[in-house]
Structures are given as structure tokens and as C-alpha cells.
Design a protein that fits this description.
By secondary structure, the chain is an alpha/beta fold. It has nine helices and seven strands; from the N terminus they run E-H-E-H-E-E-H-E-H-H-E-H-H-H-H-E.
Length: 231
């Protein structure tokens, strides 16, 4: 989605989690700053950056939020799987746009009818419908460059098993605050069965990724990925 955007030299990643996206962007030559309000996430992100040989001067991780970038602007502001954790998501999107010189890249879970224990257990307030998300983007003074529906049909296939796992997690953590669930969501993924850890998962999913791209223009998926540009 960004490969034909050589003008992007700097980025801000908000809610960076374990730092995978920020590290990937830094490896493509962009200089970045990333924030997250989870201490554990920042610790993991720093470890990931160091293990991948990325210079600290090219990518900084900071505990907290947008208070660290007051008055600063970046070519790209990214925010993956964060808006659904925030009560006032419209306000946050406008704040993200205010820190962007050119582009905003967001991803969110799709379709409120699919809202279940897998959302509740990680601190989600909502899922998104395409029309309302488009309106929210427009209200933030952003134009849509590309709108992708990602994951179908494979996320649908694993939904039943995933729901069972998160039902169990929700029972164990039923008294945990939404804030703490959100903090854990980016660094505590569901563990794979031991037998699957013997395989190179990244290589194994490549053909499925290309298959799923055939459905990206249809509103069938559980997730939306949207590249926006300042008006």
C-alpha cells in the first residue's frame, strides 16, 4: 500500500504494540517515532528494534501518547488496531490527522454484528461499519486513497476456534479493566498449538495472503485497512 509512496520519509506510529509495523517501516528507510501506553509493549518493541539491527536514531519508542509529539508533524501517521480501544475515536482520528503532513494509515476491526468475546477480552468498544468509517474519515479532513477489506475468507474460517479461546480468556479476566485489556492486546497474542511452532508460519501463509487479495475489494472481511491523505 505504501510501496509507491517514496515521498514518505518520516512516520509516527500510534499504539505501536510490539513494534512490528514500526520496525518494518524503519527497515524501508523511513525515520520513525512510535508510542504506546503499555510499558511491556515498549520493552518488547525496543528488543525487536535491537534484534533487527535498526539504529536507535532511526526509530525511537516512547511510553505514552501524543503528548510526546506536540507540534510535530510526520509524512505518515499510522495507527493499527487502536481506534476501537478508544471511547472518543472521532477525536483521536482528528488528532492523528493533525500530526500528518501527507498520509494517515489506519486499520480497524470490521462489522459490529461480529462483536464478541474476542473483542471484549482485548478492550474493544466497537467494530466498524464501512459507511460510518468513511464518514468519520471525511470528518477528520482526510480523503481516502485506498480502502482494503482484508483477511477474508481465512479469518472467517478460524472464527469459531478463536471465539472459544477468547471466551476462556474473558472468564479468567472478567474483572480486568478495559484499560488493562487494551494494554495487553498488542503483546499477548493467542499461542499457537505446539505442533504448529515447528513450521515457518510466515512462509506458510504467503499463498493464503495472495488468495485473500482477490476479495479485498468486497466488503466481506473482518478488518479494514485504509490509507488516507490530507485534504
Amino acid at each position: 500500500m505504501l510501496k509507491d509512496k517514496p515521498e514518505i520519509k518520516s512516520f509516527l506510529d500510534v499504539g505501536c504494540g510490539a513494534g512490528e509495523l514500526a520496525c518494518t517501516l524503519a527497515e524501508k528507510g523511513m525515520k520513525g517515532f512510535a508510542v504506546d501506553f503499555s510499558e511491556d509493549a515498549i520493552e518488547v518493541a525496543n528488543e525487536m528494534r535491537d534484534s533487527r539491527g535498526i539504529n536507535k536514531s532511526n526509530l525511537q519508542f516512547k511510553l505514552g501518547g501524543l503528548e510526546h509529539v506536540s507540534g510535530k508533524k510526520y509524512d505518515l501517521v499510522s495507527c493499527f488496531e487502536v481506534l476501537e480501544h478508544v471511547k472518543n475515536d472521532k477525536k483521536l482520528l482528528k488528532e492523528l490527522a493533525s500530526h500528518s503532513k501527507k498520509y494517515v494509515l489506519i486499520s480497524v476491526p470490521a462489522k459490529q454484528r461480529l462483536f464478541d468475546s474476542s473483542d471484549k477480552s482485548v478492550g474493544h468498544f466497537r467494530r466498524y461499519e464501512k459507511p460510518s468509517l468513511i464518514r468519520m474519515i471525511d470528518d477528520a479532513n482526510l480523503d481516502i486513497v485506498k480502502f482494503v477489506n482484508y483477511g477474508y475468507p481465512f479469518t472467517d474460517i478460524v472464527r469459531v476456534g478463536r471465539k472459544a479461546v477468547f471466551n476462556n480468556r474473558l472468564r479468567k479476566n472478567k474483572n480486568e479493566s478495559m484499560n488493562n485489556r487494551s494494554k495487553d492486546s498488542g503483546i499477548n497474542p493467542v499461542k499457537l498449538p505446539k505442533a504448529l511452532t515447528k513450521f515457518d508460519i510466515e512462509k506458510a501463509i504467503v499463498p493464503f495472503y495472495y488468495m485473500s487479495r482477490a476479495f479485498n475489494s468486497y466488503d466481506l472481511s473482518e478488518g479494514y485497512l485504509v490509507l488516507c491523505k490530507k485534504k
